[in-house]
Write a structure and sequence with these properties.
Elements: E1 3-6, E2 14-16, H1 17-24, H2 35-38, E3 48-51, H3 59-66, H4 83-92, E4 96-100, E5 109-110, E6 112-114, E7 124-125, H5 129-134, H6 152-162, H7 165-173, H8 181-192
Parallel strand pairs: 2-6, 3-4
Antiparallel strand pairs: 1-4, 1-5, 6-7
Length: 194
């Protein structure tokens, strides 16, 4: 999952995938260098785009694939910055927009993201576990595990562990978003009734 964060004073509450492409892509449809390029009512503040994609995360790859549709980043985007620098940008630069793997802790605010592509929702969603699980939050790639029915009895203990609170905690520490507790509970109940 990719979280879009900005400075806490920024009046923006949401952003579209197209606007993100206009900010980050080398050859966008309509270049956005200033916040009022995205929203005429916004204050005139230069956009400082950055990507924090630490080892083990796929922030850069997910964003480039989904929002930029494989296009390269514009030359002034700060790529693969360290988490401490992302936190500093969110705290000190009013025009910052930083792509990170999880919501910022205390510094900056999260923007909701609207997909808006043809056939997709124009409603902006935040990156919470329910929106990610339901597929409403557009900057995420789901991990789907398929199990053969004839192997289910042997794999049930491993599947129980995969949906446990312990596994969910481990996934969160890696910057991943586990299924919501209610969905994991329903899955275990379905395992018990087979």
């Amino acid at each position: 999952m990719v979280v879009v964060a900005t400075h806490g004073s920024n009046r923006a509450e949401s952003i579209t995938l197209e606007n993100l492409a206009n900010v980050f892509a080398r050859d966008p449809r309509s270049a956005a260098r200033n916040w009022n390029d995205l929203d005429p009512a916004a204050r005139s503040e230069l956009i400082t785009p950055a990507v924090c994609s630490p080892a083990g995360s796929m922030v850069l790859e997910i964003f480039q694939g989904l929002s930029l549709q494989g296009q390269p980043f514009r030359s002034d985007v700060r790529l693969r910055i360290e988490p401490y620098l992302a936190a500093d940008l969110l705290a000190s630069r009013a025009g910052s927009v930083v792509l990170i793997s999880r919501p910022p802790s205390g510094r900056g605010k999260v923007l909701q993201v609207a997909d808006g592509r043809p056939g997709k929702s124009t409603t902006a969603y935040g990156p919470d576990e329910n929106n990610v699980h339901n597929g409403d939050y557009p900057l995420q790639v789901p991990l789907i595990l398929y199990v053969r029915q004839d192997r289910l009895p042997q794999l049930t203990p491993a599947l129980r562990w995969l949906v446990s609170d312990e596994a969910a905690s481990m996934l969160e520490k890696q910057g991943l978003t586990p299924a919501p507790k209610a969905a994991r509970t329903r899955f275990v109940q379905r395992l018990d009734t087979r």
